[in-house]
Amino acid sequence: MSLNEIAFRPEDPAHDPAIEIINEEAFGPGRFARAAYRIREGGPHERALSFVALDGAAVIGSVRLTRVAAGGGRALLLGPLAVRPAYKNRGIGKKLVAIAVEAARRAGAGVVLLVGDAPYYGPLGFRQVPPGRLAMPRPVDPDRLLAAELRAGALAALSGAVMHADLAAAAAPASAREGEAEAAEPRVAAARR
How many CA atoms lie within 13 A of 34 on its CB side? Predict the structure, then answer.
């Protein structure tokens, strides 16, 4: 089967059981202890920016993007990326990454982060995050913390602890949340007119 015979589609809730099986095959029970998994526990992934690879109706691969924050910056965290064992080494994973990164770019994201191997992700536009810039919730080899900067200067806005964006918003001081709400009010009022 060639890459041309695989369909790539946005993720749908009906795909969830198959995606869980694929991730279990790829990462085993140890996946729950990984730094990126700890971040993803903080809230939902962005289903509109997550994709599956299909062989007919069967889900054979998946990639997800999750909103994250670090300091005053925002980004998307790529992963998990997994492909069924029988379909590996056909370019499906790389195609899923390329589709997700392009969707992130169209959505206005400035940076996509991931924990992975530079030789695999480097050709897809990912580079090592400068050591010491970001802290993951569990130890991560600094050589494996990678970023694709989609907007010049966006990586520089990220610093400190990486967490799910929902947790960052909940942890923001009340005055900052009130300011965000006030700033949103004119847009909401204008939308109602």
Answer: 18
Are the C-beta atoms of residues 113 and 78 closer than 8 Å to each other?
Answer: yes
Residue 56 region, left (φ>0) first, then alpha (ψ -120 to 50), else beta?
left
Tens-place pLDDT, residues 144-163:
999 999 999 999 999 999 99
- Helix residue spans in the chain (DSSP H): 16-27, 35-40, 92-106, 118-121, 165-171, 174-192
Token pair 């400035």 is at which residue?
110
The domain 3-165: what is its CATH number? 3.40.630.30
| Count of alpha carbons within 13 angstroms of residue 11, beta-carbon side | 26
Please say whether the beta carbons of 74 and 67 come within 8 A. Answer: yes
Structure pTM?
0.85
User: Quick one: 27 exposed, middle or buried, by C-beta within 10 A (0-12, 13-18, 19+)?
Assistant: middle
